[in-house]
Amino acid sequence: VPPEAAEAKYTIALAGQPNVGKSTIFNLLTGLNQHVGNWTGKTVEQKSGTYPFQNSQYTIVDLPGTYSLSANSEEELIAREYILREQPDLVVAVVDAATLERNFYLVAELLLLPAPIVLALNMMDVAEKEGITVEPEVLEKALGIPVVPLAASRGQGLETLKQRIEDMLKQKAEYKPSLPAILPAHKPVLDELQELIAPAVPDVYPADWVALKLLEGDEALSKTIESRLPAAEWKKVGALLYKHEDAVLDIAGARYQWIGRMVRAAVVEPPASRMGFTRKVDKYLTHPLWGSLALILMLGGVFFLTFSVGGPIQHWLSLLVGWLGEGIRSHLSWAPHWVGELLAGGVLGGLGMVVTFLPILAVFYLALGLLEDTGYMARAAYLSDRLMHLLGLHGKSFMPILLGFGCNVPAVLGTRIIESKRARILTSLLVPFVPCSARLAVISVLAPVFFGPSAFWVTWALVALNIAVMMVLGLVLHRFAFQDEHVAFIMELPLYHLPNPKTIGLYVWENLVGFLKKAGSVILIASLCVWALSYFPTGEIQTSFLGDFGRLLAPVSALLGLPWQVFIALLTSFAAKENTIATLAVLYGNFTTALPQVLSPAAALAMLVFQMLFVPCVGTIAAIRQETQSVKWTAFSVVAMAIVSFAAGLAVYQVGRFF
Amino acid sequence: MLKELLALLASSQSSSVSELAERLGQSVELVESMLERLCAMGYLIDLSRVACSGGGCAGCSGRGACALMKRPAVWSLTPKGKALLAA
């Protein structure tokens, strides 16, 4: 029917949360008959369009996506003002059938406005795929409003929606909405409030709705009413609102009770759902004993996979780098000696050797990505919190410590969530003991060089050592900083699901690209500096600047059973943790074969322990300075970690050499 | 129901959403939705978001990968939430 022939004209508002398929429904209903502009005086986009249906013409106004109508944002204000001021003939509330609990709060608020509602139960196909069965007829009875099931992305249900809208507007449908209850204790308060504000309520607003919103603490409406009421009257309103300040929780709580009732009535969850599976698995994986054992096994599994798959490829690549280095030297025999050495020893030796570890890192990140994307890492965090709690380390220091496993820098900056300055400073000092992903990557590379098939046990023990040191210090932290402070948490544990190959692939890719960027900047510069210091002025490492400096350090490094070259490599991790590998490569060439010949197993273990506990990278130190605002505390952190790492390395070597 | 949830959170040591949901006799999704609402109302804070908003990720080589994975929310009481329970 062409628009000119239409007999009646109606205006429909389309409301809903973001990402519920509202735009898809709008586009399918209106086709090309759309107009896009902005809401008057706002920067938020306004879309409207028309469609004809059975001799009537419908204008659809797409309201901004909102989570509620509480004037918390410009979008929420636009949506509710439109419904109240423009008074559309009907509102279509679009909800995601797979997540009704999250969507119904808005519906509960929409039902309080004067316009009739039709519920568009969209994404029925997604809900079905996720094992959630929603019964639209039951929901319709429970809600007392028309409910239309849709799968808009497949174009299903649109004609029924049009028909139900038509029926509703022509009063052919029953409309007896079930509204969220108001606590009996609040009814007299609302009545009193309504009486007080009655002369100031704008004509287009229902007075009972305004009273309810004021009790909810709605700032926009408070300002409106305040500006229209005599000061003495507003004072009475203010006193009443202050007295019932916490009523907002009862009002919102009643809405959630209503949501719970509606969802329980209409949603059927099969016994073998993902939720059921998650509950069963979590019984073990979040159990203090079984969960801890599983965590240990998972961690060991990650390292085992990394070494057994990535190791052989790295070995082959390191041979290739050695061969390329020799090629460069022989091809540049005509040039000054230092040119060949710079390219073969400095650039290829340092950077090239670091790059050969990409396969190891790829497997490491693949394993981590799998654990993360299945939802297991959240359980590991949850379990860690429980373990820390058992040891007395709890409170808001938990979150920065958890972040520290990724990178220490944001973890230190994250300590700002802790209110107490003393606790904040002490947590900043504790975070660098958390083995960050760079430390773990370096250990993943070095451990198999010395310990072959046993490397994953060694790596696991090194991680455990760091956590143990951190926990011992955490006990001190608890005793001195968090005494009497009880901070409770609730943690979200997502449902287990099959990992998405695309997400995992991107995760590995992003990590490797990030590593290569670091290799091409910080690591390359450090490699060239180490090379230059080890080459000049004589071209021989023993008589170079670095050699002179190294001999000064030799008595100290000997206590750990380490040649000074290895000790210097460890010290260069101050710029970035990966520099240890680059420096070893510059000083030893293919260190995977050279190092086992110069280090005893006890010395190798001491080296790894030192690497794990040594002073954090310069970025973390800068973050500590920023958060503590104290050079003294920053210096304390650096010195304390240097002492702890040296003492631990010393103990390991001195005890280990007797075995 | 929201007051009950806040009180449960404050009295528990540390727990997961599913544990709380079980104690309240509600679904996990509903409890999550309530927690998000309490966050919007200023009674709770999502520590994972606050901790990640420190700006420390700007120079991190792993930030691209980190952003790909959804970090689980960790809710805790704000001073406003504590004051409400103390009243």
> Which class do the helix and strand fractions of chain B yield?
mainly alpha
The helix tally of chain B amounts to 6
Strand order of the largest sheet of chain B: 2-3
Give the strand content of chain B.
Answer: 5-15%
H-E string of chain B: HEHHEHHEH
Mean pLDDT of chain A: 85
Multimeric state = heterodimer
Strands side by side in the biggest sheet of chain A: 2-3-4-1-5-6-8
Q: Distance between termini of chain B? A: 17 Å
Largest interface (C-beta under 8 Å): A-B, 74 and 59 residues
Outline the low-pLDDT stretches of chain A.
none
Q: Mean pLDDT of chain B, as a whole number?
A: 79
Distance between the termini of chain A: 94 Å
Main sheet of chain B? 2 strands, antiparallel
Envelope shape of chain A: elongated
Beta-strand segment tally of chain A: 10
Strand portion of chain A:
5-15%
Assign a percent range to the helix content of chain A: 55-70%
**Structural Rg of chain A:** 33 Å
Task: Give a written overview of the molecule.
The complex is a heterodimer of chains A (659) and B (87). Chain A has 29 helices and ten strands. By secondary structure, chain A is α/β, with parallel strands linked by helices. Chain A has a seven-stranded mixed beta sheet with strand order 2-3-4-1-5-6-8, sandwiched between helices. In chain A, a hairpin with a 2-residue loop joins strand 3 and strand 4 (56-62). In chain A, helix 13 (288-331) packs antiparallel against helix 15 (358-374) and helix 14 (337-355) packs antiparallel against helix 22. The model of chain A has no long low-confidence stretch (mean pLDDT 85). Chain B is mostly helical and 87 residues long. A two-stranded antiparallel sheet of chain B has the order 2-3. At the A-B interface, helix 3, helix 11, helix 12, helix 15 and helix 16 of A face helix 1, strand 1, helix 2, helix 3 and helix 4 of B. Strand 10 (489-491) of chain A pairs parallel with strand 1 (14-16) of chain B, so a sheet runs across the interface.
